[in-house]
Specification:
By secondary structure, the chain is α/β, with parallel strands linked by helices. It has 35 helices and 33 strands. Helices cover 46% and strands 17% of the residues. The strands form 7 sheets. It has an 8-stranded mixed sheet with strand order 14-24-23-16-17-18-19-15. An 8-stranded parallel beta barrel has the order 26-27-28-29-30-31-32-33. Helix 13 packs across helix 19, helix 20 packs parallel to helix 23 and helix 22 packs antiparallel against helix 23. It is elongated. The protein binds phosphoenolpyruvate (PEP) and magnesium ion.
């Protein structure tokens, strides 16, 4: 019979079935800690399989699970010498969610379960602490009512706030037993009013209510959003952990805390964390009381502190990874409540990986596989310019590094709305909650008035790799008026601010930034990655600045130089327009001859920077109308400049108009209709090479790329054109030039006919932007309107323009690779669509046996690491 309930105990070893898939992360780690004989309160895990059953069977829990759970509760009773629902020594339990991967704050938890009007008296008598007992009961009512009965939390909070106001106190800790007694009565009245039923007194009813609520929370809106953002499959489900409660709020010899075995912001090997004496876990995370630095524990609780340090070491050795730990001290006894691999910034991830290799905890290969390639993005982007003028308006905790500027917004939905309008925002909240997850994702950075380094905002922002300043107590937020005040500054919604998550500073306006430092540990990881990768990494670039950046980031060539971008330059666009407006081939050639020197010098600059590395130059691709003026004013300007009438230009614009420009007169079709354009471009390439030779610059071997080919005849004709032009230049300049001619594969027909096409091509480069567009028949420019619906309805797992659609587009790539190489073994194969910088797609490219990927300059290091990871995963 399938095992659905698993006990944490220290005598068995963890079997294969007791994996995170079944126990969830939290359950598996609790079981593991128990196995290491660490002090874990007794308890058990209900398997994720039950969640699946629950969701598919009308929210029912199998009978077997109910029976077995009863037995497990009896075992906890035996160990703790307490009894569930007992009137003299009651057992209280926590009920917590725990999915395979951590989803901080996304699902529900109920603590202090087992308290009712009678057991609370027993707890009071047992602990001789009436205040503690009543405080625990009211917390339980609040949590249970919210999580299980669906009553909004603010009803209870308002009652507490009003009561404190009348009593004239500020802190919850200033309320005594009688105060809580009165509030408990009021809480129960709310429950009665909202649910028409009394607050449940039966402890079994409480238990199954809470377990069901945890299963239900798997499908809450916020959990679904979190899964969508993090690509967590819906079918995984959550496990439920039922565990004996331990209390950190029973007096001065009690405490509760969270800690990381290394600093999750910098990666430094130092204890990092916070704790509160006489408090429950939620007090640390909620930010209502300011927690103390864990290092001060050495002074207040030296014995416990030393024990903790020892355990941290043990856990790091066991997991070979930095751990994020929750603990509680109950009457001077330490209890471990959770351990998991800690979320960290990319900077910390790199430092920890490199340090752990030095410490011989992990190998270089493991270090490479440890780092989320996508997260490198945060390191590669600029940080604040130290020399720039800054008007600091507030400061808070440096919760997640990086700098970001944007318009102030106070609501998550508004941040999301503005993102759709391509506006950068900083989400400013008193504190964030899981409901804000969509806005945190949409915003460039997060600023909160409350909360510590382990608050929701800090943890989530670090996970997302977003800058965050938390706990900036000096800012006073007024949601209603949509502004915040900090000292003498009043910042309204829409005003621009800059936050620096590395220093915790908040600044007025947009502060300039500088390039990131990619030396030290970063470069070490890159060196290791280069050692273990097979795929080459090139860049998509057409300007000297981008090309230099890409070279600094380790690009091994240019995989796509989109020459049309060079045409948009202010000085050239007039000649481009003159060329397009020409009526005869003679006029066109005249206009093109004016463009020639510009193109030549563009190529010369790029060839110089690339210093012998391969450069793929793509000949003109977009439809010509893209270069023509759009407004009447621009049309008039160009009419004056070229001495053509306004109406002539207008009629040419009408003539060039296309219903489906992306499927129209573009790519190689332009080369077929107007060969002089491609001739000029080839002449510029070869003459630039001749110049390089003259100036003794190391010669690159250009790879001339013909776009949008679908037939062998197209490439045959255009290859001839390239060869003829090359011959002419070789003769006129008396030089020998080496070059290749190839094509983009960006139409399904080209993939299918790859064998014929390869006859005339030295290389293929998969233009997966267009290939995705044409394979799905989905416009790459208009898909934004419905892509979300497709992801929501699970038609797409991910946006196929971001991560390659392996089954469709991928299949075409495989077909083209196979057929192309069948024709020509030496055929070089690469990818230059946006997918070239996406780690999942890079993994696909490795599997598809391509030679290189090409991506935008800032993604080059990501692709280098992803390529190494792909190779290592393939070999595993
Ligand atoms: C492509 O289609 O994938 C490509 C690289 O070309 P472009 O994006 O310029 O159309
Ligand atoms: Mg294309």
């Amino acid at each position: 019979m399938e095992k659905l309930i698993f006990r944490f105990n220290n005598n068995g070893s963890l079997g294969k079935t007791e994996s995170k898939d079944i126990l969830g992360g939290k359950g598996a780690n609790l079981a593991q800690m128990a196995k290491l004989k660490l002090p874990v309160p007794p308890g058990f895990t209900i398997s994720t399989k039950v969640c699946d059953y629950f969701n598919k069977n009308n929210n029912k829990i199998p009978k077997k699970v109910i029976q077995q759970s009863k037995k497990e509760i009896q075992i906890i009773e035996k160990i703790t010498k307490k009894k569930f629902g007992d009137l003299s020594n009651p057992l209280l339990v926590s009920v917590r969610s725990g999915a395979k991967v951590s989803m901080p704050g996304m699902m529900d938890t109920v603590l202090n379960l087992g308290l009712n009007d009678k057991t609370v008296i027993a707890l009071k008598n047992k602990t001789s602490n009436g205040r503690f007992a009543k405080d625990s009961y009211r917390r339980f009512i609040q949590m249970y009512s919210n999580v299980v009965l669906g009553i909004e939390a603010h009803f209870f909070e308002e009652l507490i706030d009003n009561y404190k106001l009348t009593k004239g106190v500020i802190q919850d800790t200033e309320l005594d037993e009688n105060d809580w007694d009165g509030l408990i009565k009021n809480f129960k009245d709310i429950v009665k009013e909202k649910t028409k039923k009394n607050f449940p007194q039966n402890v079994d009813e409480q238990l199954w209510g809470a377990i069901s609520a945890v299963f239900l929370s798997w499908n809450s809106k916020r959990a679904k959003t979190y899964r969508k953002i993090n690509y967590i499959p819906d079918h995984w489900g959550t496990a439920v952990n039922v565990q004996a409660m331990v209390f950190g709020n029973m007096g001065q010899d009690c405490a509760t805390g969270v800690a990381f075995t290394r600093n999750p912001s910098t990666g430094k090997k130092e204890l990092f964390g916070e704790y509160l004496i006489n408090a429950q876990g939620e007090d640390v995370v909620a930010g209502t009381r300011t927690p103390q630095n864990i290092l001060t524990m050495g002074k207040f609780m030296p014995k416990i502190f030393n024990q903790l340090k020892k355990i941290f070491k043990q856990l790091e050795i066991k997991y070979k990874n930095m751990q994020d730990i929750e603990f509680t001290v109950e009457n001077n006894k330490l209890w471990m409540l959770q351990t998991r691999s800690g979320k960290r910034t990319s900077k910390a991830a790199i430092k920890i990986a490199v340090d752990m290799v030095k410490e011989k905890l992990i190998t270089e290969k493991e270090a490479i596989l440890r780092i989320d390639a996508n997260m490198l993005d945060t390191l590669l982007h600029p940080t604040l310019d130290e020399n720039a003028e800054k008007k600091i308006i507030a400061s808070g905790l440096p919760a997640s590094p990086g700098a970001a500027s944007g318009k102030v917004t106070f609501s998550a939905d508004e941040a999301e709305r503005l993102k759709e309008q391509l506006q950068d925002t900083i989400l400013v909240r008193v504190e964030t909650s899981p409901e804000d997850i969509n806005g945190m994702h949409a915003a460039k950075g997060i600023l909160t008035a409350r909360g510590g380094m382990t608050s929701h905002a800090a943890v989530v922002a670090r996970g997302m790799g977003k800058p965050c300043v938390s706990g900036s107590g000096e800012i006073k937020i007024n949601y209603e008026k949509k502004l915040f005040i900090s000292g003498n500054f009043e910042i309204k919604e829409g005003d621009t601010i800059t936050i620096d998550g590395g220093s915790g500073k908040v600044m007025l306006g947009e502060v300039p930034t500088v390039k990131p430092d990619i030396s030290g540990d970063f470069s070490k990881i890159m060196i290791w990655a280069d050692k273990y990768r097979k795929l080459k990494v090139r860049t998509n670039s057409e300007t000297p600045t981008d090309t230099k950046t890409a070279r600094d980031f380790g690009a091994e060539g240019i995989g796509l130089c989109r020459t049309e971008h060079m045409f948009f330059d202010e000085k050239r666009i007039v000649s481009v327009r003159e060329m397009i407006l020409s009526k005869t081939s003679e006029d066109r050639k005249k206009a093109l001859s004016k463009l020639l020197p510009y193109q030549k010098s563009d190529f010369f600059e790029i060839f110089k920077i690339m210093n012998g590395l391969p450069v793929t130059v793509r000949l003109l691709d977009p439809p010509l109308h893209e270069f023509l003026p759009k407004t009447d004013k621009d049309i008039n300007d160009i009419a004056d400049e070229l001495d053509i009438s306004h109406s002539d230009i207008k009629s040419r614009i009408i003539e060039l108009h296309e219903q489906n420009p992306m499927l129209g007169h573009r790519g190689c079709r332009l080369g077929i209709s107007f060969p002089e354009i491609y001739q000029m471009q080839c002449q510029a390439i070869f003459e630039a090479l001749a110049d390089c030779k003259k100036k003794k610059i190391k010669l690159v071997i250009p790879e001339i790329m013909i776009p949008l080919v679908s037939t062998a005849a197209e490439i045959q004709i255009l290859r001839n054109l390239v060869d003829e032009t090359a011959n002419k230049i070789q003769k006129s300049h008396s030089i020998k030039i080496k070059y290749y001619v190839g094509t983009m594969i960006e139409l399904p027909r080209a993939a299918l006919r790859a064998k014929d096409i390869a006859k005339y091509a030295d290389f293929f480069s998969f233009g997966t932007n267009d290939l995705t567009q044409t394979t799905f028949g989905i416009s790459r420019d208009d898909s934004g309107k419905f892509l979300n619906d497709y992801v929501e309805n699970k038609i797409f797992n991910k946006d196929p323009f971001v991560s390659i659609d392996e089954r469709g587009v991928g299949e075409l790539i495989k077909i083209a690779t196979e057929r192309g190489r069948m024709q020509k073994k030496s055929l070089k194969l690469g990818i230059c669509g946006e997918h070239g910088g996406d780690p999942t797609s890079v993994e696909f490219c490795e599997k598809a046996k391509l030679n290189y990927v090409s991506c935008s300059p800032y993604r080059v290091p990501i692709a280098r690491l992803a390529a190494a990871q792909a190779y290592l995963k393939k070999k595993k």
